Automatic annotation (TrEMBL):
Example GO BP: vitamin A metabolic process
Family affiliation: Belongs to the H-rev107 family.
Pathway: Cofactor metabolism; retinol metabolism
Transmembrane segments: 197-230
Function: Transfers the acyl group from the sn-1 position of phosphatidylcholine to all-trans retinol, producing all-trans retinyl esters. Retinyl esters are storage forms of vitamin A. LRAT plays a critical role in vision. It provides the all-trans retinyl ester substrates for the isomerohydrolase which processes the esters into 11-cis-retinol in the retinal pigment epithelium; due to a membrane-associated alcohol dehydrogenase, 11 cis-retinol is oxidized and converted into 11-cis-retinaldehyde which is the chromophore for rhodopsin and the cone photopigments.
Descriptive protein name: Lecithin retinol acyltransferase
Compartmental location: Cytoplasm, Perinuclear region; Endoplasmic reticulum membrane; Late endosome; Rough endoplasmic reticulum
Highest taxon, organism lineage: Eukaryota
């Protein structure tokens, strides 16, 4: 029914938005710090330098390049590198506040973390994307060196420079993101639906509740329904 489909559409769009932002809601009283897996939780003996590690989650997939010795290079939105060059502060586990502010200001860092911190307790797939690129797979050492050269502060874009773009450039020589493609298709599908006007309002309100009152959340809440109404 229409009553059921509207909230479902709103929920779907919100999930896709959070997918690309990599938001991981933390439990109350956690102090903003995500829980870390115990050292040795993962068997790294099956990983080789240059492998593409993929961590599927409910709403998104996170990617990294294995560098050997329990180290993974991966791209994370992070506001902190814009304010300090202190490696000890930057290397601390990225909190949701740092991450969201990084997305809003389009700043990030390609950082090196342990497998435990990178995977965040999730299961790990190894070179799962190779089947999509066939003859484009670069040598493992080349992939690792590319990742190491890019470590440090970088620009961030949900659509053009996220963690998937980083790893596909390193391992396959071309930055692409299948998650971005799926996200864009979902947005187009919802926009084509007249009911998405109400759905976008619900998404905007949910964004304000989840992320707080800020231009990044309130402006889309106002303007997206307006433009959808004009297009209809």
């Amino acid at each position: 029914t229409m009553k059921n489909s509207v909230p479902q559409a709103a929920s779907l769009l919100l999930e896709k938005l959070l997918l690309l932002v990599h938001v991981r809601p933390l439990p109350a009283g956690s102090g903003g710090e995500p829980p870390a897996a115990a050292p040795g939780y993962y068997d790294t003996s099956c990983f080789k330098r240059g492998d593409l590690l993929e961590v599927p989650r409910t709403l998104f997939i996170h990617f990294g390049i294995y560098l050997g010795e329990n180290r993974v290079a991966h791209l994370m939105p992070d506001i902190l590198p814009a304010f300090t060059g202190d490696r000890r502060q930057i290397q601390q586990v990225v909190t949701n506040k740092r991450l969201i502010l990084g997305v809003i200001t389009k700043t990030a860092s390609i950082r090196v973390d342990t497998v435990e911190d990178f995977a965040y307790g999730g299961s790990i797939l190894v070179n799962h994307m190779d089947r999509l690129f066939e003859d484009q797979v670069l040598g493992s050492e080349e992939a690792a060196r590319r990742a190491e050269k890019l470590v440090g502060a970088t620009a961030y874009s949900l659509l053009w420079n996220n963690c998937e773009h980083f790893v596909t450039y390193c391992r396959y020589g071309a930055p692409v993101s299948f998650q971005t493609d799926k996200f864009c298709e979902t947005v187009k599908m919802i926009i084509r639906d007249q009911r998405s006007v109400l759905a976008s309002v619900l998404v905007g309100l949910a964004s304000i509740v989840c992320l707080g009152l800020a231009p990044s959340t309130t402006l889309p809440t106002i303007f997206i329904p307006f433009f959808l109404w004009m297009a209809g």
